């Protein structure tokens, strides 16, 4: 059943942009504040969970919200996502421990998943595919803006009123978004005939996803990869995933219909999306921390240094969207984009502690230029391959796997980064401390008591030059080798998209 009131596309799109901004800001706003948060609340070993916890629940929420929106209508599920986001922001804002902060971020992430998937599905409900490229391009630009605005705001709050305001600000914005959505959204009521939610599928998907992220977060950092705990988590994830597929093949109304993956475009763009997720989070989540610890920038300055990347993303996201709307051709853009990302990864492997900021800015501009050509075009390809009745489910499934890439990427990259950095410091600190004489013995005692677990950029700036050099080189040599590992993955994703069939973009909504 479709609401007969014609939606005001301008008002609807404005409401969607606000929540898209909030959900994408939520992923990255603490990337520049992480060193300070760890210094205040302690627990550097849990640092990656401030980002990963958000992404895990966001990933789980995507197919759940997508399926419920297709079956029961998107409006109130969209609004409920905003409500979860507000509650999570309040919980995290009042956290007095890393555990409480991570719980708040997990609730916030679940709401963000509902907002993000419904924003994309609602656009498919009110705008024809041929014109959708323009709107998706602007959404991609908003994601790009948030990727730099998040670290800037996180840095500004950290340097000013405090990092907690990065969460509290969502409360009035969320209430505004709920009000606007209630008043302006007039959408279909969904396909309710015989609709039954797949609770078993949702439970299995939650187990498979959460155990996978736990394993990749703890593996090699808190527990050896060959430990019983990590192997048990990976085994649980694999078994739950296998049972999930079996259940979905037999379910009357599956959470993720397996027939979607009979579509070649769906399979190829989903596989490429996983790699894209890993590549995105590797730079967006950890570059601000790198800039603070290696180049002694403040959190705000580290956020501003991400501007070249967002400039590249906005340029290509909006430009490619306009070209797609005008010419109808879209296949070439993500292929070129992934190749450009590979070039950006190679450039980032060349970073050293002596690299000037202008050069670093040029490198991440190239990286952002590639991202802008890929993100929203992959979603457009999926939406153009399916009818409106399943577009939410199809979009959610595609986004789910990209978020899996981001979640696993945040965990694996974070674990590798921390592991490499700690090993480098363990190797280099003794010689630096010995060269400092009696003063070095005092610092050695402090590091043995756990001072290294609470290092903030401000604290590092107060250390003697020998120790600052060790810390900056340890952070640099901890992160840059990871970009080298991404290059073959990204090039493989580009090759995956070569067989994509370029279907004609639809001229009508349904």
From TrEMBL:
Belongs to the major facilitator superfamily. TCR/Tet family. Its main location: membrane. The lineage of its organism: Bacteria, Bacillati, Actinomycetota, Actinomycetes, Mycobacteriales. GO terms for cellular component: plasma membrane. The keyword Ligase does not apply. It is a multi-pass membrane protein. This is MFS transporter. GO terms for molecular function: transmembrane transporter activity. Residues 12-505 form the Major facilitator superfamily (MFS) profile domain.
């Amino acid at each position: 059943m479709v609401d007969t009131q014609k939606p005001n596309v301008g008002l609807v799109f404005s409401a969607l942009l606000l929540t898209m901004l909030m959900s994408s800001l939520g992923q990255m706003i603490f990337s520049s504040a992480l060193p300070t948060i760890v210094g205040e609340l302690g627990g550097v070993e849990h640092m990656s969970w401030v980002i990963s916890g958000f992404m895990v629940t966001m990933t789980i929420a995507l197919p759940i919200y997508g399926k419920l929106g297709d079956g029961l209508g998107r409006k109130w599920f969209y609004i409920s996502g905003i409500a979860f986001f507000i509650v999570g922001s309040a919980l995290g804002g009042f956290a007095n421990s890393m555990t409480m902060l991570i719980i708040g971020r997990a609730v916030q992430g679940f709401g963000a998943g509902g907002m993000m998937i419904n924003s994309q599905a609602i656009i498919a409900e009110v705008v024809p595919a041929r014109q959708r490229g323009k709107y998706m391009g602007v959404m991609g630009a908003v994601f790009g803006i948030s990727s730099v605005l998040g670290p800037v705001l996180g840095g500004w709050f950290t340097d000013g009123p405090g990092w907690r305001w990065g969460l509290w600000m969502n409360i009035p914005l969320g209430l505004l978004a709920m009000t606007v959505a209630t008043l302006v959204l007039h959408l279909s009521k969904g396909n309710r005939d015989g609709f039954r939610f797949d609770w078993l599928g949702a439970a299995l998907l939650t187990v498979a996803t959460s155990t996978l992220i736990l394993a990749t977060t703890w593996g090699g950092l808190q527990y050896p990869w060959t430990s019983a705990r990590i192997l048990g988590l990976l085994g649980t994830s694999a078994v739950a995933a296998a049972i999930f597929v079996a259940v979905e093949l037999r379910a009357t109304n599956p959470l993720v219909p397996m027939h979607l993956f009979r579509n070649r475009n769906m399979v190829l763009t989903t596989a490429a999306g996983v790699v894209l997720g890993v590549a995105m989070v590797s730079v967006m989540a950890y570059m601000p921390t790198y800039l603070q610890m290696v180049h002694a920038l403040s959190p705000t300055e580290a956020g501003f240094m991400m501007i070249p990347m967002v400039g590249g993303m906005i340029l290509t996201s909006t430009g490619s969207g306009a070209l797609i709307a005008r010419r109808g051709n879209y296949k070439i853009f993500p292929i070129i984009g992934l190749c450009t990302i590979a070039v950006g990864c190679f450039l980032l492997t060349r970073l050293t502690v002596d690299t000037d900021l202008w050069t670093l800015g040029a490198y991440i501009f190239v990286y952002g230029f590639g991202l802008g050509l890929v993100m929203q075009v992959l979603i457009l390809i999926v939406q153009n391959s399916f009818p409106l009745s399943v577009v939410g489910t199809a979009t959610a499934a595609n986004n789910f796997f990209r978020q899996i890439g981001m979640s696993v990427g945040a965990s694996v990259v974070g674990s590798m980064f921390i592991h490499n950095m700690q090993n480098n410091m363990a190797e280099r600190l003794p010689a630096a401390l010995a060269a400092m004489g009696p003063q070095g013995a005092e610092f050695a005692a402090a590091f043995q008591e756990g001072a290294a677990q609470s290092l903030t950029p401000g604290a590092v700036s107060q250390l003697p030059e020998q120790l600052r050099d060790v810390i900056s080189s340890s952070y640099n040599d901890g992160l840059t080798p990871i970009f080298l590992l991404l290059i073959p993955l990204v090039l493989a994703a580009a090759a995956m998209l070569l067989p994509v069939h370029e279907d004609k973009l639809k001229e009508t909504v349904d």
